[in-house]
## 1
Amino acid sequence: MDWFDSWGVTLAVFLPAAGMVVVLAIPKAQERALKLTTLATTLATLAVGVGMLARFDYDRTGALQFQVNKSWIDVIHSRYHMGVDGISLPLLLMTMLITVGCVIYTWDHFPDPRTPKAFLALILLLETGMNGTFCAEDLILFFIFFELVLLPMFFMIGVWGGPNREYASIKFFLFTLFGSALMLLSFLALFFLSDPQTFDIPRLAAQGGVGIVASTQNLIFVGMFLGFAIKVPMFPFHTWLPDAHTEAPTVGSVLLAAVLLKLGSYGFIRIALPILPQAAHDWAPWIGLLAVIGIIYGALCCLAQRDMKRLIAFSSVAHMGFIMLGIATLTNFGINAAIFGMVAHGLITGMLFFLAGSVQERYETREISRLGGLLDQAPRLGWILGFCAMASLGLPGLAGFWGEFPAMLSAYNPAAGISQVTFRVYLVVAAIGTVLAAGYLLWMFQRVAFGKVKTEFAHAHVHDVHWPEWIAWTPLLIGIVVLGIYPNLIFRITDGAVTNLAHGMARAIG
Amino acid sequence: MNPVFDYHALAPEIILTATIVVVLVADFFFRDRERFQTSRLATIGVLAALVPILTLAADGTTRTMFGGAYVVDDYALALKGFFLLVAYITLLVSVDYIGEGDYYQGEYYFLLLSSVLGMVVMASARDLITIFVALELISVPTYVLAGWRKHDTKSNEAAIKYYLFGVLSSAVMLYGMSFIFGLSGSTLLSKIGAYASRPDLPPLFAVAIFLTLVGFAFKISAVPFHFWAPDTYEGAPTPVTAFLSVASKAGGFVAILSLIYFGFFGTQQAWQPVLWALAAASMTLGNLTALRQTNIVRMLAYSSIAQGGFILAPLAVAADGHAARSAFEAVVIYLLIYGAMNLGAFAVVIAVARRTRSGEISSYSGLGQTAPVLALLMSAFLFALAGIPPLAGWFAKFVMFRAIFDAGTPSAYTLGVVAAVNSVIALFYYAGVARRMWFRDPSESGVETVPARTPPALGIALGLSAAVVVVIGIYPQLFARIGEVAFPG
């Protein structure tokens, strides 16, 4: 199995790209072949992921495993350095799982215009970008993969999106590009200020910003912060998100919410914190502030939404706020919670967007006020919606709880040197946010699922959950329950890596 | 002094000259139907000229001739190879366009190859007079080529404008060069270089450098000397436009590169501010004007002005910090990548115009449905120009930013911010075309589409450009290595 240790990561990242090439070569009339190829590719990728899970050494989760370090662009000292550790493994697996779900979900309801070939090719390209971002250990490589997701998502929103898709797609593209342009400048600055000069993430983390003047560190951190914060998105950089989510086709929304947003928060954990610990320390209260503003602002916006998808989109702003609050504490506990929150949010919000898509498909509207009585017409769909709403509001026993609750707890005791009072205030504000979350989610569920069916849909024939939906959703639903009952499944993977990170930061700050 | 001819070193030029003569003469002997054969002769000549470049590169020694006025080193070879490949792609793009129109064929290839010869000479020129001769050899044939569609008033306008601006800029440049010669006592760049690093230079020298650079700024259509470019690009036959926007522009950049690195390097205070202003203005105004264009060729014209600004940016900080090497590499790498991206985009424009007979951006609506492959290629070239990974353009932008960081001065960082903001602005109009192609319905195009197959030659040109854009985007080391080797210092 030695070959797997050295080729596993490369396979996980480039299998989808290879599958895309095959898909492009298949004539578009052969829809079945197209779907089967895509499904086989994503399943094979998932199998690689499961193989990695099996071969992973759980005693050394802090160390990079399945490492590849080959020359790539020698002239700029950038290398093909990939690997997986306890921080990236759960996210990588979640991505693979959700992608398979997306392919199955679209099996026989492709969004209009019905061009499965292009749509499936884009999903595969997107998966290469997402998996690559979680595995990259070189700043330039990370940048390439981070940007690689832009084009497929731009086209996915723009071609298959809702009525306002052109505006939403270009807004998404411009916002993210603006952030990543500044991020690239920060990466370059890091390269020139590191000694010896390198783009290698572990080596930069080992240097921990030593020898860089504090003011310069802060400036570089701001550049990276903008790149990642726009992607997360944190208040006030979130305005692209509701538009993009609302207009995107169901699968686009799912991938956007479940994975793309995590690229931003993952960037903080993988790059910003370990490489510039001092600057992270200085900026932590501000990041925490934006995070809690996001929690409250997102929740209030949710209460004002009439469109199901838009509501879930704003709830993402709020949930990502909890994740960023956990990160901002800079503690072992908080960052572990954040990673758990990322996985949980991926599963739960992914499910919610699937459900919103299914509701829209059946009623041809997502307007909450026109819906009602879902439990009468499609009880299984209704109960799954209820279940996911509960999970999303953080009901103990389901996955959402373990993302939010420890993140808030960690705010009680932030890392040494960060104002306790400030973070305890944030804790209180975030707690109000959970109450609001319960409010808007339950209210949404109540209006959509309870009561009588509205007259306009009274005689409509509404299908309950289809078989592709069952197949796509079951693993996610199981994941939500299992992780909720036994959160240690993830904490045990992440903890070693996060402890390393927290120690490294503490050492660098001294 | 008896000049020594190194026939190996001059082989590319000799082969090209022979081809030019053969093409011109052969045209007399072909009957009308066989005229297209001239294009084959030209193509064979260009490819044959690449052979000695490879043997010279394998040989690796620097060959100096004519008292240092003509040098064949790795830098010259890299760019000669680039110019010949660009010429090859231009020929591929031209064949059907010229063959199907009611044009003279033999003369077209004669003029095109003469211009290419000028570029090949330019790469080796290390002397003011040689540079000037090379530049005129590049420019004069293109004045005629721009007016090739002689029954079309737009083409006539294109040629006249281009000619007048070209002559004016040559005059300004020569005026500057005459001062340089008068002050330094030599036309050799190496001697001028020695003079330029003296501490007590007369202010007139700065004026001379300024005038010379202004002359070249016309040639590379840098703002504010760009006014001829959009009209000329729009009016000229599209293959000629592609050639102008890539090859002849690159010729100007190579001249500036040689002048600065071999001549003016010591007097940075004289040329850095000029180039800084040209770079910042070209990027910003080029992009902002491109946003408003409705014609695809005009949009690409303004985009190439903006791209010119990006290429100038590293030069504008080249003498600061330790940027000398990375700035040089950045210009060379950017030129190579820009060549592939822009030629590819123009090749698509030609292919699409065969179907729609239109150059309006609106006519691209729904191209994703009517011609998915062309739309896919066009999207790749446009997003490459915008610098979106994993397409080659990102690496061009990257090396530019690297040079700016190597310089590390406040003025360099300011230019870096200008460049960063501009690359975001640029995305808007590049993505705008992509939006039309994929998000709109063909019914919005407002043109009748005639079914037209893309001819094989054009297909090869498209395939080559696309291959470069994708392969270099994923594995930039190939071009990065060329840039590294080319650095003469």
Note: The beta strands of chain A are 65-73, 78-84.
## 2
Amino acid sequence: MYKLETREANLFYGAKQALKGISMGIDANAITAFIGPSGCGKSTLLRCFNRMNDLIDNTSITGSFLLDTEDIYRDVDVYQLRKRIGMVFQKPNPFPKSIFENVAYGLRINGEKNKTLIADKVESSLKSAALWTELEGNLKRSALSLSGGQQQRLCIARALATEPTVLLMDEPASALDPIATAKIEELILELKNKVTVVIVTHNMQQAARISDKTAFFYLGELIEYDETKKIFTNPDKEQTQNYITGRFG
Amino acid sequence: MRAKEKMIELVMLLCSLLTVVTTAAIIFVLVKDSIGFFREVSIGEFLTDTQWTPLFSEKHFGILPLLCGTLLTTFIAILVAVPLGLIIAIYLNEYASRKISGTLKPVLETLAAVPTVIYGFFALQFVTPLLQEVIHGLAGFNALSPGLVMGIMIIPYISSLSEDALRAVPQSLREASYGMGATRLQTALKVLVPAASSGIIVSVILAISRALGETMIVAIAAGQEPKLTADPRESVETITTYIVQVSLGDVPQDSLEYNTIFAAGMTLFVFTFLLNNISFWLRKKYQNRYE
Amino acid sequence: MKRGNSNLLTLKDSAFKYLGITCLVIALSVLALLIWDIFSRGLLRLNWSFLSNLPSRHAEKAGIRTALAGMISLLLFTIMVAVPIGIMAGIYLEEYGRKNWFAKFVEINISNLAGVPSVIYGILGLQVFVRTAELGNSLIAGAFTLALLILPIIIVATREAIRAVPSSLRDASYGMGATKWQTTRRVVLPSAMGGILTGIILAISRAIGETAPLLVIGALAYVPFIPEGPKDQFTTLPIQVFNWTTRPQATFIVNAAAGIIILLTVTLILNSIAIYIRGRWYKKISY
């Protein structure tokens, strides 16, 4: 059984088709990478899984998307869905609140009022995001006072606080320097045990480093999807070969 | 929880509808009460009679004197505000540094924030006596004084909005002009102002609308004698002053004399309504050009 | 371009610079002159008795106590009505409204209302609140009238403040399963507060200075008592100043000037606070 699955998915922005007949299954507790040149639809597909595309006017979707075999567009409440699936964005977007309030946000909107419970979950989330020791107990500081890399880990902690089973990451390290990137990659590898990770990345070496399976997209189509090792050493399709050797994109 | 969300959205929707209701109410009130007036006074008489004396024993109901007073004071104000406002806008945009224009813009906008009774006092007590020294035949109440003061007051309407319009002109146009060796003045007059022309026109229209609707400055300094004249040295009465004059007096409500304020108000509203809509439409049009 | 002309062009260019500065100086000098004139006339009149006395037919004994009380009460009622409605409408139009004809229609409306002369609001208030609703020329009628007048200011300020909040913050909130109202209340509004506050202060500043609509609804110039409830009659400082300004006696002119000093000072302070808040908020929001 796949954790996430899509069957014959098509997405249209108005008249323009951004996704063409995508069918694939994401394994649980694995890291799956989406790669491909700009505009190939990898971010669009990612955002379908937590229905973030609903927020954009004029989009229409056919086909089905499944989380734990439930159809997320027909059988699941969208707000519940987004609590079960966390998302981390390309540019870190912490709220202009304190570090504590950022991580506690997900709990508060769920109506959680127990202060001790919130404090515990904030602590464990920050630990999972490898931020706890760095912050030295000063959680009342504004989140904006952190460095870029720390902010992104804060966003990961924030997403983890509601204990989602899936984490969608849209080029999470592209705005960060190499050291911060390395820390994020280390973190993602650790998270694999608790969550299923789907990561969109422009950086092929990154995909090769951390993912178990990789999907290559081009112009809205899924070209090839297989074990990462195979994609990067011996892909079946010529297009994949051309992309990973840098012939285009 | 969804029900709560829907409730909140409904309340918000009602709040925004209030603005529509307000406009409708204004139109309704003016039209309804004007109809009462026009049952007794023909529209022809209203528009063509050259005297306005509803409060005297021999009654005339021609709007022209009041309209004339309004237009005369507005004209003087615009004569002051447009050149000054535009020159200031160009100066702030092309000549002054970011820091200076950033500091001066809010200071200028203060001019528009001063309560108008204060300007009225200033016009009556300072400007009129001062002008009387140089202008022969300037009456104690006249159109010139309040016109000039109004002009100063509405400078920010023109300078701020025009400056915004000039700033919105793409940098590439400026670079093309400077790249050919044009001076700042040439660039401003030959390239920027034409490119920003709709924004500038909008600012002038809004300034005119503001001047037409001004009450206190003219009520204090222009006088309460409706007169059909083009001489700014004479005292005049504007539509707005007349409305206030009747409100302060003891004309019985629902009498014909009282209903004159609705007919007068309607006239004023038609002017400003038209101008406001034209400027809104123009603004929408030029906003899309650079998107 | 001919070489010979370039000197003339440079000359014109510099000349315009001085022209621009001159115009600026003219505009600002008028303001400075006004302030100087007012202060020189009225500063000496400002004393405790002026502030605390009731109005009187004797200029030396007259004070602005009731005018101040009326102004403050009126302001409080006006704010209580206009601010919640204005913010809610602004949120709806910016966050909830779809970009359809209805939204455009409301937008045109608001733009129109912002340009309606204040006397017309007075006529509206007179017919609707004073007469039809039978509230008389009371504080509450005045408050409703002024509230309608400043509503567009608050709505526009709220919309612009909300628009300035980066959409990445909204994405983060929605991504965590928050509903629209939760996102608005917890993320958007707190970030937009600075801009909204600026708008409210500017609206207050405008309301304080309004005279014409209140005169039309029948606010009196001579009110020798402090209004105690919303149905009481009232007067305000601008009305009191207007009343004194129209008297021929020099002593009343001095009173008017003194009243203006207070009015002007309050207005300038409010405007400066608004500008300060707006400046700080813009820095915060563009991070």
Note: Chain C has two domains: 3-45, 49-285.
